[in-house]
Amino acid sequence: MPHLHRRAALLAGAALLFPAVAHADDDAQPERSYLPTDIVVTGNGESDYGTQDGSSATKTPTPLIDVPQGVSYITEDQLEDQSIRQLNEALRYVPGISMETGEGHRDEVFIRGQESTADFYIDGLRDDAQYYRSLYNIERVEVLKGANALIFGRGAGGGAINRVAKRAELNGQAVAGEASIDSFGAFALLADVNQPLSGSAALRLNATYEEFDSHRDFYEGRFFGISPTLTAELGPQTTLVASYTYDDDRRVTDRGVPSVAGTGPLRGYDETFFGDPGFNQAEAQVHIGRVRIEHEFGGGLSANGTIQYADYDKVYANILPSGLDSTADTVFLGGYRDYTDRENWIGQGNLVWQAGGDTLESTLLLGFEVSRQDTRNGRDTVSFTRAPGTGGLAPNETPLGETIFIPPYTLDAGARLRDSQLETLSFYVQEQLQIGDHVELVGGLRWDRFDLDTLDLVGGVAGDRVDEKVSPRFGVIVKPNRDLSIYASYAESFLPQAGDQFLVLSPTSAQFEPEKFTNYELGVKWAPLAKVLVTAAVFRLDRSKTPFTDSTGVTTLTGESRVEGFEIGAVGEITDFWKANIGYTHLDGELRTASSFGPAGQRLQQTPKHQIAAWNRFDVTEQLGFGFGVIHQSDQFASFSNTVELPGYWRVDAAAFYTVSDRLSLQLNIENLFDETYYPSAHGNNNIQPAEPFSARIGVRFAL
Fold first, then answer.
1. What does CATH list as the number for 2-703?
2. Residue 619, SS3 per DSSP
3. 641 and 664 in contact (C-beta within 8 Å)?
4. Choosing a second label site near 284 at 20 to 30 A (CA), which of 25, 136, 497, 601?
5. What phi, psi does 389 have (nearest 5°)?
6. Are 168 and 230 in contact (CB under 8 A)?
């Protein structure tokens, strides 16, 4: 019960803290925006939706209301109000997304029923290595839903997650920081400094240091990140943006709890660690450097080019529960150590031409992308060395208890070692044609070439394959008035059989063409108020060409699945005192034919039928505000086997905000206010993650 004592102490401290500053200067609450703040204008007239940026979905200056695709935003203001610092925490408030435990060392998501470890981007460029992502240098998070290879390339079957990084600003010096601590002892320090160097250049530095803790036994870790950026005007029409990010993440790898008799999570052991804290460690060192040049030629013609280099060094080790004997009250264990070294080079260029008059306006996009990815991946396996039958137990079997005794083991090197080299080349074209005031057409094609070479260094098996794919995207938008758009869209994407990490080609997978994703969507976007956007959409996502091996051992690309759904949401400033981001998603997904995932009729894994996410901020006075959030997921299956069910749950969060002055503010955040026991995610049937109980965080934010 230590967390209950911490809860009481923290709340008592907060109760004393907020009245203590009641005599402060009467400064108003800072402006908070739950929609992006970019000014985006199309055509000759300024749009009422200039604060609603949809450019990531089109690579062109496009208001969000004119994007024929579901898009969810989490702005920096909302992240601050929710005291969120890591991507996986932010995505829990996005309906249509389910979180994976990701083997305890990485971000992994299901978007519209499609699992991905690689559909993550920074400013539209791929960031595909497996690690946890911090948000200390991020301006907003965008979730673009539905297949769309035209903009993002391969993968992105269910959608893509794009982080928009902070830039150095030319218009003034700014120094800001934040410190916070929660009821488990975890704390975070953040700094954000912007310094103009001249009238045409500025430098910005974002940095953070965090230490992790939770209700789980033995869990701990720390994160350090630093990200300098430079913005320079090279001329009246040319801007250079250069950035470097170094992230260093180290934490205990936690695989959660096993299931009971293949039916549901093991109850009553939510704090028990089923591993070896000295062995279960994850480390990731990430270097990302980027240079972008933007140029306005005049006459509606603009161009941008970006070069990105990224280096990822990652290692993670797991001893994990692999099964449970509920009769004997024993747990079976497995284990391994995995490491990956990866280098990525990406070059991307875009040319945008806007032309036309009052009755016909054209926005033409021409672009290319070239990349190279070099990867070495290895795995060592854990062998339990206790003699069989000792104490009536198997070598990897141990009694179930509040503390798990790990049997003796050794690490066998070289179970897996493989090299891969991936080279890609892409060209794409997109036309956005506005016909009068009421109709807009969007259409485009992307051509991708993938040249993959792999080598299994243990088995001595080499593999190679070249894929060339054309991916279309079409949409029509009808606008009865400027506040309302109705759209229909069709888009395709694909995923080569080597998987989203491109690590190895087997003799079987090297024969087959990529899997295919096809997205059909009908939607409505409506702005009933100047700072509010309401969206609704129905969609169908078909996945085909999935491998299926029959009883004779013959493999064919006959596997198919389908997800159908409906989503509705509202975001923005509903009144002067009420900001909100509210959404609901209904998903119905199943395997339509037998595939490598399972037999026909099985429900898709970790795809709840109902999801609700609602965050609200109420500013009740000029100094005092409150936050209130609700997350709901209905029951879902942990895997395609459909034998282990994660029960549905409701989670309630709350917050209080107090503005001491225009330079200082205080904040209290409470997660899981009613101390709900639930299991939001899993990695297979026997690695189920218990959610945190009631927790509270106190933070101080300042600006100089």
1. 2.40.170.20
2. strand
3. no
4. 497
5. 90, -5
6. yes
Rounded to 5 degrees, what angle do the CA atoms 330, 335, 336 make? 180
DSSP string across 518-571: EEEEEEEEEEEETTEEEEEEEEEEEEEEEEEE-TTS-EEEEEEEEEEEEEEEEE
Strands 664-671 and 695-703: antiparallel
Q: What is the pLDDT of residues 86-116, one digit of tens each?
A: 999 999 999 899 988 888 899 999 999 999 8
pLDDT in tens, 469-520: 999 999 999 999 989 999 999 999 999 988 778 888 888 888 899 999 999 9
C-alpha dihedral sign at 372, 141, 145, 653: positive
- Bridge partner list, 383: 410
Across 550-687, the runs of DSSP E, i.e. the strands, are 555-575, 578-591, 610-619, 624-633, 636-637, 645-646, 649-661, 664-671, 681-682
Domain ranges of the chain: 2-703
Contact 585, 97 (CB under 8 A): no
CA distance 310 to 317: 23
Query: What is the Cα–Cα distance from 55 to 615, expressed in whole angstroms?
Result: 25
Nearest CA among 254, 212, 187, 214 for reference residue 2: 214
Per-residue tokens: 86: 């890591």
Q: What is the pLDDT of residue 180?
A: 98
Radius of gyration of the chain (CA): 25
Interval 406-434 mean pLDDT: 95
Q: What is the pTM of this model?
A: 0.91
Q: Which of 681, 682, 685, 626 is nearest to 657 (CA)?
A: 626
pLDDT at 499: 79
Question: Token digits for 270?
Answer: 């939510």
- Residue 357's H or E segment, with its range, is none
What is the rounded average pLDDT for all residues in the chain?
90
The 3-state DSSP composition of the chain as helix, strand, coil percent (nearest 5) reads: 5, 60, 35
Contact 636, 608 (CB under 8 A): yes
Q: Which residue has the tokens 């009421």?
A: 438
The residue among 159, 96, 91, 111 whose CA lies nearest residue 586 is: 96
Average pLDDT on 669-691 reads: 95
